[in-house]
Design a protein that fits this description.
With about 280 residues, the protein is an alpha/beta fold. The chain has 9 helices and 11 strands. Helix 3 runs parallel beside helix 4 and helix 5 crosses helix 6. The structure holds 3-hydroxy-5-(hydroxymethyl)-2-methylisonicotinaldehyde.
Length: about 280
């Protein structure tokens, strides 16, 4: 095992709005993980803003992945994907990496939408292709909207009873992933994350912040990926990500910044750093 685990981060680079690579890179670095970016698109701002520039980088990916064919990764973390061709190339990369290193694990955040709506760049065809990509993943991290898009279950809001959340998770498993974490389930004043691994189901909940900041899913998946790469079990990694999210969203709410600017994680990154540095010191 490497002393510094290595993760390939396949995601877009959005210049403003704290999401995707601008979240994943600092979070993984502070957790003691080498983050190797694969930019899928460059946007001036994320798609939650009324105007943004968008440059698709699909054409650059074959050479990019080809030049990485002599590298292997402990984890691959994939998020926002911009086109059907891109999804095909990402699937090939997943497979070739698993062939090189059967220990390589894949975390797929099936980024497609939120609050019952698809993001503006996600067509129905793109969502269908993401659904097929789920079969390649060890862990997926859909929010409720994405879990509904993946399963075809109608979206009925962010509040789910335990048994409804369990049903949603059960319907995800036939898509072929090894484990699923459904994020952002609202239960009164708590936010729950459901973890389904094989037949096992676990809920972990944290205090709920009454505001939906963009990029929270990316922040959750990034911390989860870092924790998994650092060797935590899936339930422990989900708790670590949930705890951090709860803390930073409460802090962001106090600052009163616009929701589209995302979660102000910068002032609290040191806490993640300290937590995982202590694990280093203890040899964990
Ligand atoms: O946070 C998910 C995300 C990632 N990347 C881009 C987005 C969004 C959500 O709006 O627009 C470009």
């Amino acid at each position: 095992m490497r002393t510094v685990p290595r993760v390939a981060c396949i995601n877009d680079l959005s210049g403003f709005g704290r999401c995707s690579l601008t979240t994943a890179l600092p979070v993984l670095s502070v957790m003691g993980v080498q983050a190797c970016p694969v930019p899928t698109a460059v946007l001036s701002k994320h798609t939650g803003f009324p105007q943004f520039s968008f440059t698709d980088l699909t054409d650059t990916l074959p050479d990019y992945f080809e030049s990485w064919s002599d590298l292997d990764f402990d984890w691959i973390y994939a998020g926002f994907l911009g086109s059907l061709g891109q999804i095909r190339l990402v699937r090939q990369f997943f497979r070739s990496q698993k062939q090189r290193n059967p220990e390589c694990r894949i975390l797929l955040d099936p980024v497609m939408g939120d609050e019952g709506r698809r993001y503006s760049t996600y067509t129905v065809e793109l969502c269908d292709a993401v659904r097929e990509l789920v079969a390649e993943a060890d862990v997926i991290t859909p929010n409720i909207t994405e879990a509904c898009l993946l399963t075809g279950i109608p979206y009925q809001g962010e509040c789910l009873h335990r048994h409804e959340a369990e049903q949603l998770a059960e319907q995800l498993m036939p898509l072929g992933c090894r484990a699923a974490v459904i994020t952002g389930i609202v239960q009164e004043n708590r936010i729950c994350n459901l973890t389904r691994q094989g037949e096992n189901v676990a809920f972990s909940s944290v205090h709920r912040t009454e505001c939906l900041f963009s990029g929270t899913g990316d922040l959750f998946a990034s911390v989860l990926c870092g924790a998994l790469a650092r060797g935590l079990s899936l339930p422990d990694a989900v708790s670590a990500a949930g705890d951090f999210l709860s803390e930073v969203t409460q802090d962001t709410l106090r600052q009163g910044t616009p929701a589209a600017e995302g979660v102000l994680f910068e002032p609290l990154l040191y806490q993640l750093g300290r937590l995982f540095h202590e694990k280093n010191a203890k040899g964990e």
